[in-house]
Amino acid sequence: MTSSPVSEAVAERRPSLSVVIPMYQEIDNVEPMVARVQEGLAAYRGPWELICVDDGSRDGTGERLSEVAERTGPHLRVIRLRRNFGQTAAMQAGFDAARGELIATLDGDLQNDPADIPRMVDELLERDLDLLQGWRRRRQDDLVMRKIPSRIANKLIGKVTGVALHDYGCSLKVYRAEVIKEVTLLGEMHRFIPVWVAGVTAPQRIGETEVAHQARQFGVSKYGISRTFRVVLDLIAAFFFLRFGSRPGHFFGSIGILFGLLGGLMMTHLLVVKFVLGENIGDRPLLFVAILFLVASVQFLTTGVLSELLTRTFYASGERTHHRIRWQSDPDTAGWSETL
Ligand code: UDP
Ligand code: MG
After folding, report:
1. Residue 103 CA to ligand 2 centre (angstroms)
2. Stretch 219-245: mean pLDDT, rounded?
3. 3-state SS of 210-243?
4. In the CATH scheme, what is the code of domain 17-144+165-219?
5. Does this model's pTM top 0.90?
6. Could you read off the pLDDT of 7-30 as tens digits, one per residue?
7. Which of 87, 21, 90 is nearest to 49 (CA)?
8. Does the structure's ipTM exceed the value 0.90?
9. Domain coordinates in residue numbering, the chain
10. Among 99, 236, 284, 297, fewest CB within 10 Å belongs to which?
11. Is 223 in the pocket of ligand 1 (CB under 6 A)?
């Protein structure tokens, strides 16, 4: 790091930090993971907490986490979900509980190195970013099943959303808490977090930096190739919400107006042919197309109004997450770990 005035100020004391780790069937990773975070953050000159979210594991991950928390102290907080809600929901539960000014996320399988976090925090502050995305330049995963599909996916996501990053899939990220707490994550949407963040902040406040990556040692990956389909659907949703998020009705409305105009033009043409030129229009395919377009335009406009209503109801309901917590460490006695 250069010794700019900013980095000196940063080096004196860093903001409070919450590290969030989703864990599903990771029993053998619990102890080494917590130990690695403690080591990696020993150099973090500021208060930090670790929030481990057990995503409904059936292998004892949750119990193991509670045991380890007893020994580790109140800066290790445990949240146990009632069932397996998926990585996105587990991360959302962690974000909701986080008390830090900054939040870092990483996977619970030791593939990411927590020792990267202090440096990432400095970089986020120096570059004045809201999100610093990790980039696994030397990724230790299978080439055909993982690296090639994800390279294609990253290019596609960048093109579709206009937020170009090399490695959307890397869980190691650092955020300003106030920004990530503005975002509501659903489905598989943790894969496009930068896109959602771009929806609430300026794209130039999102950056990326190279991070270390290791092959998985214990346990197995929770994902196969089948997730590609869900990811594609969520990509369409991400694009849609980024462009039309606050007014989904406008999307359907514009298609409706376009179809209505096209249909109207065709109809006018046909009416002129029939009544002004006096020709028979009964056998013209154009007539079917015109009617189809006019009917479709009404459908699109109706869908638009409906989606507006739904969006309003959704935001008014206040029920924006769907995971349920079975048990969590008492938030009132949660502590900070600090090395100064
Ligand atoms: N994970 C989770 N809930 C799930 C699936 C995964 O909390 O339903 C966690 C998992 O324990 C790990 C992280 O999400 O900490 C990433 O999962 P995994 O390592 O299986 O994915 P990969 O690295 O293979 O993409
Ligand atoms: Mg992994």
Report:
1. 19
2. 77
3. ECCCCCCCCCCCCCCCCHHHHHHHHHHHHHHHHH
4. 3.90.550.10
5. no
6. 555 557 899 999 999 999 999 999
7. 21
8. yes
9. 17-144+165-219, 246-316
10. 236
11. yes
